[in-house]
Amino acid sequence: MATQRILDFLATRRPSGPCLVVDLDVVRDNFRAFEKAMPESKIYYAVKANPAPEILRLLASMGSSFDTASVAEIEMAMDAGAPAERISFGNTIKKERDIARAFELGIRLFAVDSVEEVEKIARAAPGARVFCRVLTDGEGAEWPLSRKFGCVPAMAVDVLRQAKVLGLDAYGVSFHVGSQQVDLSAWDRALTDAKKVFASLAEEGITLGMVNMGGGFPTRYLRDVPAAQAYGQAIFEALSKHFGNNIPETIIEPGRGMVGNAGVIKSEVVLISKKADNDNVRWVFLDIGKFGGLAETMDEAIRYPIVTERDADEKSPCVLAGPTCDSADVMYEKTPYPLPLSLTIGDEVLIEGTGAYTTTYSSVAFNGFEPLRSYVI
Ligand SMILES: *Cc1c(COP(=O)(O)O)cnc(C)c1O
């Protein structure tokens, strides 16, 4: 939703060209909602969702920790005021020299999902804490993370055992249930696997202390999603079911759920046309597309709410496309998007729920279009 502050900003500043406007008040509310819904969990904001310095500074000042994926993200979090103890290097795919640099910067918490990565960490970050990521099925997620990260629970046991052998602190298990996860039972399924790893290692005398429950908390696009409180309840019940009254330290890593609904993109209609006189589907071209920041429309996975000033008028289905000369730059075609028949070239449209995964996905200058501009207010 565009907040009044965002609407006022756009009305007074009238930025030309497409831009993202993020309302920090919404980020603050989201952080508090996570704290309230999961009071026992530490919050590690997933920096990649939106690394704007104002957002990182706000969250650092509120006591958030940070999940990072590169040395650059670690430095951004530190520049925003986060001490190294509140930063994890959560990418399971790291160069050894980046691990060493992170260690030099004071980072002591690292993600792994293979023995090969454990060996790098043992060499470059001796004695550090590691947690092993287990695969999840991603079912129920609108932006699943597939098989790229994690390993099966049986292998996680081997990975953590080897970490211990190599002098690391075998600290815990992590998972990510898939982004924009709207199935509350997804955490229960993943915690079943996490518990297996805890139990197997306990039999060998290795006691794990932490479960990193990742991100996946959704933001509202066209459909309602459960509130943070509902997620907190489901997760607490799943933790109790699997760990009884011996619940380990827990971490959550919200990205989308922290910033998605805090941002709105302002865009402009560049062209409305048809491919044949008798077509009943219009093509609407905006000044932003897949390469300008809306990469998550890939496979039409994320459907953003689009607001125009003519929404009271009758609507008809449109193909929605971006302005670049790449034929892949079409956002919605398989499922056309209903837009007002009265929509006109030059009209402004607001694309809501775009605070996460937009600015960082926009290309540098494809076709000469500048990267998505962002204002944090
Ligand atoms: C991207 C990512 C997140 C954030 O995921 P959301 O679905 O945006 O909440 C959390 N943890 C890790 C390891 C990630 O890669």
Question: Could you characterize the architecture of this molecule?
Answer:
The protein is α/β, with parallel strands linked by helices and 377 residues long. The chain folds into two domains: 236 residues, Alpha-Beta Barrel (TIM Barrel); 116 residues, Lyase, Ornithine Decarboxylase, Chain A, domain 1. 30% of the residues lie in helices and 24% in strands. The chain contains ten helices and 18 strands. Helix 3 links the parallel strand 2 and strand 3. Helix 7 crosses helix 8 and helix 8 runs parallel beside helix 9. The model has no long low-confidence stretch (mean pLDDT 96). The site of pyridoxal-5'-phosphate has 16 residues, from helix 10.
List the helices and strands and how they pair.
Blueprint: H1 4-13, E1 19-22, H2 24-37, E2 41-46, H3 53-61, E3 65-68, H4 71-79, E4 87-89, H5 96-104, E5 109-112, H6 115-124, E6 129-133, E7 141-143, H7 153-165, E8 169-174, E9 179-181, H8 186-203, E10 210-212, H9 228-243, E11 249-252, H10 256-259, E12 263-273, E13 282-286, E14 306-308, E15 315-321, E16 330-340, E17 348-352, E18 373-376
Helix pairs in contact: 2-3, 2-9, 5-6, 6-7, 7-8, 8-9
This protein binds pyridoxal-5'-phosphate.
Name its key features.
single chain, alpha/beta, TIM Barrel, 2 domains, 8-stranded mixed beta sheet, 8-stranded parallel beta sheet, 18 strands, binds pyridoxal-5'-phosphate
Structure at a glance:
This protein is α/β, with parallel strands linked by helices and 377 residues long.
